[in-house]
Queue: 4 jobs
Job 1
Amino acid sequence: MNAPSTSPTIAVEAVDLSKNYGSVAALRSVSFSIESGKYFVLLGPSGGGKTTLLRLIGGFIRPSGGRVLLHGHDVSDLPANLRPTSMVFQSYALFPHMSVVGNVAYGLKLRKLPKDEIASKVEGMLDLVGLAGYGMRMPHELSGGQQQRVQLARSLVLERDILLLDEPLASLDAKLRKDMCLELKHIQEKVGITFIHVTHNQEEAMAIADRIAIIANGRLVEEGSARDVYERPVKRFTAEFVGENNLIDGRVVADAGGRLKVDTGFAAIAVDKRGSAAAVGETVSISVRSERIHLLDPGAAAKDDIQVIPADYVEAVYLGLTTSHLVRLANGSEIIVRRLSNTESDAKFVSGQTVSISWRTENAQLHID
């Protein structure tokens, strides 16, 4: 007897997906797939094509080219109501004249389900999203976070297996957004369906995503786990967009197998190749996260596993838990060193002082784009 297949099932697949509005290309030949039951985040700057991509998956607009497959079936020409998806919008979009129960039950009533079945489903869904006991309240009696929970319940109660969320937390304040991030992840884990969530907020994406796709200028820049995208970005754009990376440009002058030597014009830096195709003579960028860089007294020596560059100290910006230290390199570029705030050690550096910055060689990332 053959062993059962352990291959993941694919809930969503985009194949060379494009969308044009006249001469404007909103989306350019995007391809990716999403495993069933995953929390997938489309992250990128405003106007990059994230919402266009989400609406193409949901059937609210039709592609100019390419295909959308849901569970292996081509749905490119199907309208939204015939797809196994439901949508949570940025605006709460609740019916103001209906109670919470009325809003959540609306889609079930359109299906003409028995009243007792509707009541049971609505009650269970309100309990899931933390609104048990709020059924008879009107939308204007709810906070922003509670209204968003109602919209989430209204979508989930339809029992579609792909939920699309378009900037669902954008209207919430920072504290509530953070709380709702955790709630969304917990709810997704409980219901076990596929969530596709659009946001431009990096912390939001990191908190909830099983996988992240970076979308910018209508293109898929790169895709990976939250940890990979944050700590090991492949593309320079990702390194610049996600978190706080410092970038140093230079030219490859030597290749020692698994490690390259890069001449920046003011220092020689070693960086691990990690499969990069960068060759001697090629222009590259090196990114190092601000929290991975250390401030040292001048004259510290470099080692095989430690890179050291001289710099001039500029200023410190106190941010509470951490302090950002700004230093200037010999070519005039500025580097941010972020570390836990410490009054005594922070006070030892003054503007104009010569210092050194360092990082472990393994903590730098090479980019050739």
Job 2
Amino acid sequence: MTARQKAEHWSIGSVLDARNDGGSGALLGYLPIGFPDLATSIDAAVALVDNGVDALELGLPYSDPVMDGVAIQKATQAALSAGFRVRDVFQAVEAVRSRVDAPVLVMTYWNPVLQYGVERFADTLRDAGGAGLITPDITPDSAAEWIATSEKTGLDRVFLAAPSSTDARLIETVNASRGFVYAVSTMGITGARADVDAAARSLVARLRGAGATRTCVGVGISTADQVTEVLGYADGAIVGSALVTALAEDGVAGVARTASALAKGK
């Protein structure tokens, strides 16, 4: 990792803390890498930050996206059909970080990381300026290799908590996570919803009780009003499907407009 990259490396925790110290939570935006093509996905990610998004989640397209809703599934399948390769992740992260000063987390199912090599993936992500990983399909008790590797590289590791999680599981998740805990607002797959499930508020309270210092809520957030609602009790609001839909329908300009509208909820 170069001195420049070290100087510019922001952890997601520092951004969440800064936003909260300033009296507002953070807005996190998700987009898949390689949709509709690699260059446009990079431009779209930059547009998010330029229009009020505080931190980025760049999704690694995967052939079996069990957690993702229709909009994200279509986008990731299009990226795979267009020739996406895992190495494109690191190119995208480095390109985005060269243009905006915001943390970039990679959201990925675990199999691509395992196939690439956990240490190799982590080292390359760190050297590209990435902040860490969000891993939706592994739990802390099955993530020993990733936890050990992230300790060595200093990368953040974000695990998910659901309303159905037991108190014991929440404590385990809090203790294993670094950066924040990802609170899934509803049961099921991602996608914009008219109402963010009230279970999110209860889940965040339970995570606080389990010792969490930073919690971000995702799945189903699609309006500025919902961002405001979530930031009333959580440290960050995560938006994905609404941004992916905007990119699919109106390109980078559409993403910029949608991000700007969402940011009004902070």
Job 3
Amino acid sequence: MLGVTKLDRLGRNAMDVRATVEQLAGVGVRVHCLALGGVDRTSPAGKMTIPGIAAVAECERDLLIERTQSGIRRAKAAGKQCGRPPALTAEARVTVVKQLDAGINIAQIARAFKTTRQTIMRIRAAALKPR
């Protein structure tokens, strides 16, 4: 027996959930969903409920993604910084670019600013991008 909190944990969409449940049933594994109580997924009534519940779960997942993306767009439009804060200040990034232009080694610059080589390489890549 396989216990899951919700059916949407078994797949990305309704078809995927149904295929997973059928595949597990084919090898003798019963799926018990805590959110659905004691409904037997192998009975005719249980088989009938799985596609509907999986479709609702898929819809909820899509709505969550949509709301999240909308919130991120709204925050960016308001000028809020999304993601991690930059490892170096704007002034430090300008200094890094000057040092790179002067031919100083990436590893040396990284050690001087107490950051990683990857951070310095990202700053270099951003400086080389046409604006």
Job 4
Amino acid sequence: MTDAIDDTHDAALGSWLASANDPGTDFPIQNLPLGRFRHSGEARFRIGAAIGDQIVDVAKAGLLATDDMNELMRAGPAARRTLRQSLSRGLREGSADASRLHSCLVPQSEVEMGLPCHIGDYTDFYTSIHHATSVGRQFRPDNPLLPNYKWVPIGYHGRASSIAVSPETVRRPRGQFKGPDDEVPSLGPTRRLDYELEVGILVTGGNAQGEPIAIADAEAHLFGLTLFNDWTARDVQAWEYQPLGPFLSKNFASTLSPWVITMEALAPFRVPFERAAGEPSPLPYLDSAGNRVSGALDLTLEVWLSTAAMRGAGLPPQRLMQSNFRDSYWTMAQLVAHHTVNGCNLVAGDLFGSGTQSGPAPGQGGSMLELSAGGKQPLRLANGESRSFLEDGDTVVLRGYCERAGYRRIGFGDCTGTIAPAIG
């Protein structure tokens, strides 16, 4: 079901590019994530692979005949594996292609990154039972988790046009909200702006309308993962979310990290899909032997905050929390199977958001809403500031990495957004 571990994952592999051998890099030769870049003034983006602090221009290197990431997605897993093997062999110490590939390198610091692909559709899921329970408890203390949660991968259709690449400046949105003591609602800048720590899942599509994707085949429709910040105006959300769910509270901005960590790179970090004793078994269309054996992913996720005062004082960002994607209640394959069980056709470049990734322990909330108990318990920062929700000038950084004994640590790069004041 999952991709095989092969020579490209060998922890002993080194690169002739020194920055790729730095223990602190997110992009060693074992990773080789894909993204789109361009130089200032250029009209089109080109496909590149990150290695250390550089980018390999894969078309210039003769490794791809296209600069269209969606075309590569449609080509399927075999084309992706061939590209990964060619990059790995060419970038290894002692490679005969070192000189040729060296001429195709571009420093990451000198280019503009674009969205990894054209995103036509975006679905946001709700896969963390810990987040669903924590947030539900704030609104429904006696019934925090609705009865369908353990049976249905809950999701909603989001707005693709407002997804932008990191680093992004996020304008504080205006919206309609109503406080508990207000006689009538009002319109204004949100007072409860929040981040949401999510994993972005890019799919390759491939099913015709009316033809579901079986869970046993779902992994072949996964292209790779990114980090994803689904910004939320909590006061707007509380007023609008019933009876149809999120609307203006979410569609003003979402930030995606620029590098796609391919499913092949993630192969060593797949883990069994397990639920606690007493939890219901998924319905048959959401269950398979392969999904039980290796459907989950051991991916550490973090949120860091840098305030304007911190930067002014020369202080580094502060980590607010850490969780792990393996704690999700639903797997990536289950999301694909459920999304298509009614015959919905997926298209190359479609994006799934995992939903906020919170952990089971206190302090592992993937949003300010959880960490501040809905604003009732403000977070005290190391420099003396406090936060219930985000303020103008705040910079939120999402980070993710996979590590396992016997394998090289790989990272996702930063997903960064800075809050700017509202207009009007």
